[in-house]
Design a protein that fits this description.
alpha/beta, TIM Barrel, binds glyceraldehyde-3-phosphate
């Protein structure tokens, strides 16, 4: 665990399968009006949007030189070819995405993504200059058995297999206990710190302490303006991956201003 002040917090809104391209424009405009330069100096702000929204968001961000970053919620492990329905790293890169979420629990649960596929997707992201937001976290059964740390670290190991130190230096890891996602049952700050701290420790083992100290580790799962400050006060929590609350632009702005809550 190190001083958080060396790491710029990252607040990322994961819109999941919400907001069509017109709603996306309206939402990003609201964020642009709500966020000040002071906010952007203190916190990096990103939105992870449906593929169909990316061009609209890119146009707004580039046209108005907004300081909001954007990205996708998934990427194919393949770069091109006969993979119906997939969207590739080169396609996301061409749309100037900064981030891509990989291994979200909803993809693991509903689309059968395992650690090997998550690992292949992380490598695909790096091949094309995209920064992965690697999602890890345990389900309720694992939590009840007290195995949350071992389970989550195994996911980190799997996802970062054969990922170089140069690549891993830029990864963002989102610890999202599945039982806290969309349930309103946020993890306690101590729960979040336990696993986020363990993830940083594992990065030090896999790479080195300097790298581990530089990587940003987010918490995700029922984050709202009312609970974000306590979670962000934990030494190894460097931001939040926000689902439901990020669909309300005013609420997301309050989350970005977690220091005022
Ligand atoms: O990616 C975001 C997480 O799944 C959290 O979603 P939530 O804030 O709606 O619980």
């Amino acid at each position: 665990m190190t001083e958080q002040s060396t790491r710029t917090p990252l607040m990322a809104g994961n819109w999941k399968m919400n907001l069509n391209h017109l709603e996306a424009i309206r939402h990003v405009q609201k964020l642009a009006f709500g966020l000040t330069d002071k906010d952007h100096d203190a916190v990096e702000v990103a939105v992870l949007v449906p593929f169909t929204d990316l061009r609209s968001v890119q146009t707004l961000v580039e046209g108005d030189r907004l300081r909001i970053r954007y990205g996708a919620q998934d990427v194919s492990a393949h770069d091109s070819g006969a993979y119906t329905g997939e969207v590739s790293g080169p396609m996301l890169s061409k749309l100037k995405c900064t981030y891509v979420a990989i291994g979200h629990s909803e993809r693991r649960q509903y689309h059968g993504e395992d650690d090997a596929l998550v690992n292949a997707k992380v490598k695909a992201a790096y091949r094309h200059g995209l920064t992965p937001i690697l999602c890890v976290g345990e389900g309720l059964d694992v939590r009840k058995a007290g195995n949350q740390v071992a389970h989550t670290l195994a996911q980190v190991d799997g996802a970062l297999k054969d990922v170089t130190a140069e690549q891993a230096a830029t990864v963002v890891i989102a610890y999202e206990p599945v039982w806290a996602i969309g349930t309103g049952e946020v993890a306690t700050p101590e729960d979040a710190q336990e696993v986020c701290g363990a993830i940083r420790g594992r990065l030090a083992e896999l790479y080195d302490q300097e790298l581990a100290d530089a990587v940003r580790i987010q918490y995700g799962g029922s984050v709202k303006s009312g609970n974000v400050a306590a979670i962000m006060a934990q030494p190894d929590v460097d931001g939040a991956l926000v689902g439901g609350a990020a669909l309300d632009a005013d609420e997301f702005v309050k989350i970005v201003r977690f220091r005022d809550q």
